[in-house]
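for the writeup, i need someone to sanity check this before i put it in the appendix. the sequnce is what the collaborator sent (i think, or maybe the updated version? ugh). structure was predicted straight from it, no edits. if anything looks off just tell me and ill rerun, i have time this weekend
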Amino acid sequence: MGSSEKNILVTGGAGFIGTHTVLQLLKEGFKVSIIDNLDNSVVEAVDRVKELAGPELSKKMQFHVGDLRSKADLEKLFSGTKFDAVIHFAGLKAVGESVANPRRYFDNNLIGTINLCEVMVKYNCKQMVFSSSATVYGQPDKIPCVEDFELKAMNPYGRTKLFLEEIFRDIQKAEPDWRIILLRYFNPVGAHESGKLGEDPKGIPNNLMPYIQQVAVGRLPELNVYGHDYPTTDGSAIRDYIHVMDLADGHIAALRKIFEDPNIGCTAYNLGTGCGTSVLEMVTAFEKASGKKIPVKLCLRRPGDATAVYASTKKAEKELGWKAKYGVEEMCRDQWKWASNNPWGYRSKP
């Protein structure tokens, strides 16, 4: 059956990566249901997806406020709609917060996902694309990171991703009719080219780009750069930044793989560009895209931060036929368009 017949449940579909992926799914002809508890997202983001998709395609989208920790919420959803697959984004994702409050992360990320699996089995939907993370590699012994590296997360957030990967591997081994793809994202940045969708974290951002963006629009006075004595060319840490639209397309490639390959089992793929960019290089690129000076404050390293992490993307290229198209310049251009159009994110000024 073509994508137009397939019905996809997207958990956490109102979030940063979720909204961009939902839009691409609609454009590719899928039907989409979103469930989101709006813990770190807003309804306005879903309205913008509808606006960008247009009236015809948005008829194929449904939005439900619900929490994966509530089996009743999931029952309501699955009893009313037959899903062909689930793309599972929902979860908390701030490293620092997870160190301070690990129980909140175990409750949300682990219990929510275990509930989801139980209900999926009950309604015979055993196909999933899971939002994992490069944090499962910890401080890798060598780079680029390859999918078969030893896994060792360095903080409770990363451990929830690692535990869930292990849980999925165990479930799939016990019940071989499951098809599961684990997507290990590197550092998602950028925004939709329209400037209408982007990242809008609540509170002080935990990630580099939303932080830079808030400095550029005057919401924060300066950018804290953690670590300026790493053994890298400019002393700042190196990461693999990936445009959120490339990431969205990676999910669609993974979905197609699940539908086409009965022997996929439970398989992990890196989604990154395969190139490392230092924090200070990213700052310079953003200054160029925005025409704004970003005041930088050099701070001590954060515990648990790795010097350099970037992806080997060969496996995704070969098996999913997917490769990142956008570079740092486009990431900064699109991020700035979103920021300058929406200086306070999806809200008007508080």
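The longest strand covers residues 127-133. The mean pLDDT is 96.
thx in advance!!
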